[in-house]
Amino acid sequence: MTSTPAQAAPVSSGSSAPPAWQPVAAIGVTLVLWASAFVAIRHLGHEVTPGALSLGRLLIAAVVLSALLARAPRSRLTRAEVILLVCCGVAWFGIYNIALNDSERRIDAATAAMVVQVGPILIALLAALFLGERLTGWLLLGMAIAFGGVVVIGSAMRGDGGSDLDGVLLALLAAVTYAIGVVCQKVLLRRLSGLEVTCYACWIGAVVCLPWLGDLGDVVQHGSAGTLLLIAYLGMFPTALAFLTWAFALRYTDAGKQSLTTFLVPAIAAVLAWVLLDEVPPVLAFVGGALCIVGVLVTRRKPRQS
After folding, report:
1. Is the residue at 70 inside a domain?
2. What is the pTM of this model?
3. Average pLDDT of every residue of the chain
4. Using CA atoms, how far apart are residues 59 and 63, in angstroms rounded to an integer?
5. HSE-CB for 133 with a 13 A CA cutoff
6. Smaller CB count within 10 Å for the chain: N or C?
7. Transmembrane stretches, by residue range (predicted)?
8. How many helices (H) and strands (E) does the chain have?
9. Percentage of residues of the chain with pLDDT beyond 70
10. Alpha carbon distance 135, 76 (integer Å)
11. Confidence band, pLDDT 50/70/90 cuts, at residue 191
């Protein structure tokens, strides 16, 4: 890999930050695509094994991102960056995907989404401990309100399948690995580009999922065209594109604050299911969605200067 002088120094948020609307728009794209992934994963859950689904979407994303990276500047990685990339790729791109996919086979999607939203809370705490980010009163209040909204949505949209302990524990594992991955990614983005971090992490995650290569081969041979198209969609959009827009925004935003915007994902997923699948959400889901929006807005409040 070639070293690029322009990327050798840490990003200066004051001199190189883009217009304020761009990170906000990038987060919006990410949230919509991630919400759509919950619907697609639920649809594929009983046709494709968790490992095969994870491997398929990661391989597609890795190939797409590699094609983009081949024409972009690349940095020579330090030993510390390699370690952080491995942690990010194994935790967030590998274990997270497998755990989330498997949990949605055991528990309903609303419960899974609710448990996974423990992740943003963990990210805020880890960012305060290891990245020096502030845990303000507004941040804590907004976190509580938004998580309450997620609980309301989960209660309103819980299906008849119930929740078993293994499914809940898998969703909790997904939350923990998501938190670890985001904190590692935030450190990496101080010097590396979002394209580099996302591409390398996708390949690392794909290696983690290689034990399910045989299952993926069966899906490619015997799966329907709709199944293959959905896997391709997951790879190109909720993975390749959404993780790129997430990384772009994270480069200029506190990890704790940005992660709390994902409290909106269950609400967006409910709206997408309503529009695309004609599944009308219960009234309580709208109440929960409103609480999520209020909570996220509260987290954006700045404390008074003393």
Report:
1. yes
2. 0.83
3. 85
4. 6
5. 22
6. C
7. 24-45, 51-70, 82-100, 112-131, 138-157, 169-188, 195-213, 225-248, 260-277, 283-299
8. 16, 0
9. 87
10. 34
11. very high
Residues 119, 120, 125, 129, CA torsion sign: positive
Which H helix or E strand runs over 176? helix 165-188
Picking from 225, 243, 200, 208, the residue whose alpha carbon sits closest to that of residue 55 is 208
- Go through the chain and tell me how many residues it has: 306
Three-class SS of 64-104: HHHHHHCCCCCCCCCHHHHHHHHHHHHHHHHHHHHHHHHHH
Query: First vs last Cα of the chain: how many Å apart?
Result: 48
Q: How many domains does the chain have?
A: 1
pLDDT band at 10 (very low <50, low <70, confident <90, very high): very low
201 within a domain of the structure (yes/no): yes
123 occurs within a structural domain: yes
Asked if residue 41 lies in contact with residue 108, where contact means CB atoms within 8 angstroms, the answer is: no
Residue 14 CA to chain centroid, in angstroms? Answer: 27
C-alpha distance from residue 234 to each of 31, 32, 58, 237 (Å): 14, 13, 9, 6
Do the domain assignments include residue 269?
A: no
Predicted confidence (pLDDT) at residue 226 exceeds the cutoff of 80: yes
Instruction: Name the DSSP letter for residue 159.
Output: -
Q: What is the pLDDT of residue 5?
A: 37
SS (H, E, C) 251-303: CCCCHHHHHHHHHHHHHHHHHHHHHHHCCCCCHHHHHHHHHHHHHHHHHCCCC
Token code pair at residue 179? 């938190």
Where b means 16+ CB within 10 Å and e means fewer, 99-111 reads bbbbbbbbbbbbb
